[in-house]
Amino acid sequence: MDDPLDGTEGSDSEERDRYLAAMQDLTAAMAASGTTFQERVEPVLAVGREHLGFPNGHITVVSGDEHKVVASSGLASTIAAGVERPLSKTYCKHTLNDSGIHIITNASESMAADPAYKEAGLEAYVGTTLRANGSEYGTLCFVNDDEAISEFSDWQQTLLKHLTQWVEAEIEREIAVDSQEESQRLLEATFNSPETFIGILEADGTLIRANETALGFIEGDAEGISGNAIWETPWWNHDAATAHRCRDAVERASEGEMVRFEAEHVSADGQRISTSVVARPVTVDGSVQKIIVEGTDITDLKRREEQMEFFNSILRHDILNGMTVIEARAETLADALDGTQATYAETILDWSQDIVDLTQKVRSVLSTMSDDGLTEAETIALGPVVEGATKKAASMDEDCTLRTDIHGDIEVVADDLLDDVVGNILTNAVEHGGPGTTIEVTTERVGPMVHLHIADDGPGIPPAERDAIFEKGERGTESTGTGFGLYFVSVMVDSYGGNIWVEESDLGGSEFVVALPVK
């Protein structure tokens, strides 16, 4: 379409004058200042209302079948910002289906049966699709609620195109501002994480900014703290060695190295905490421009490590020393007694040796957990493990029946505690199954896993309790144990990369299924 100002043959001088006046008004409206989107677009909508001859102009945003007016000028009682209705009941649905300008001059004649006309009753309408950042956003519309229009001239269509372009630019600007503000809020939320102490430094170690968490710890003032060398601030200067450790880390970070270390800090009220600290360089074109220092409170972790060491010492001194005495006495009795009594003494000796062995293994696990995690798994033949565990379980009740069907070549990924894992399940089955319990142990290959099935004909475990029995301190309703055994089993199986659960057994009781990975 030719611009009405281009002076082409056949152009009407009156239309050119009207178009020129409209563009002058539009230029003035676009230059008007406003702090909100509504304030900026209302003057432009008013220009459109005046020169296009409609009592209302408005902007909508459309998502699916949701249609919402986000800005409006004129006819506030009919179409106001914030009004929402289904897109299917609006004139805009026709605009979005068209590629250009959609014009309705007399709706009572052309749209009498349309749901949009029945809903709003607007007599005349002109609208265009608004796009922002390459995607459909909504519509720019001008409407007359009670009068038809005879025509919509070329110069008015050109004006509407200019209005559309300006509104689209304003929408993109608003989206960009919203996106920037959201990003800033996310950055601030991350920076002010209540779990982490964060400081931003110049490359020479001068503090630029500290987050609220760090400032709150020392009850410091941002202006009073900033500008000082980080190691001279209250987080670090309470102890010369701590300050030196901080300075050394920052100097190494200024040379491009990421440095990790642990430190102790004293709060404003005298509380001492331990932190894991990272000094991280921020480089631009290969040069360190800033340094970020982050500290994470590990006081509870340190306390747990101390507790684990305490329990480890109990295992090492109290339990192991006690079991050594029991083992020695049982060995003496086994040598001195005959018959049934000698058998009982040998059973005590066997169990004592097993308990000593298990205690030493648990000590190893505790030590490993306090360092780099659980012991490293390896490939282990499953058959001998099951054979040893069944012999141990059988010694608990001479009337119980244990049947195994394990292929000798099955190997799984585990460690040397697997015999205690399997043994714990089997001894539980004997203990809770009652006199003369029957237990069957079988295996099957399921994808990359071996499923070890341990089924019994005991009273079973109610479905509601099957998950809970693997939790720390949990035990069955009839159990007199500590609840440690199955929790230990679950932790170890999980460390192997496996899983464990309970089903109903074909024998009538419970069936434990231990899924173990195959190398």
Automatic annotation (TrEMBL):
Domain annotation Histidine kinase: ranges: 314-519
Entry superkingdom: Archaea
Keyword Nucleotide-binding assigned: yes
InterPro entries: 2C_sensor_his_kinase, GAF, GAF-like_dom_sf, HATPase_C_sf, HATPase_dom, His_kinase_dom, PAS, PAS-like_dom_sf
Alphabetically ordered keywords of this record: ATP-binding, Kinase, Nucleotide-binding, Transferase
Reactions it catalyzes: ATP + protein L-histidine = ADP + protein N-phospho-L-histidine
Enzyme superclass (EC): transferase
A Pfam family the protein falls into: HATPase_c
Classification via PANTHER family: SENSOR PROTEIN CREC, SENSOR PROTEIN RSTB
Identification of the protein by name: histidine kinase
Protein species of origin: Haloarcula sebkhae
Taxonomic lineage: Archaea, Methanobacteriati, Methanobacteriota, Stenosarchaea group, Halobacteria
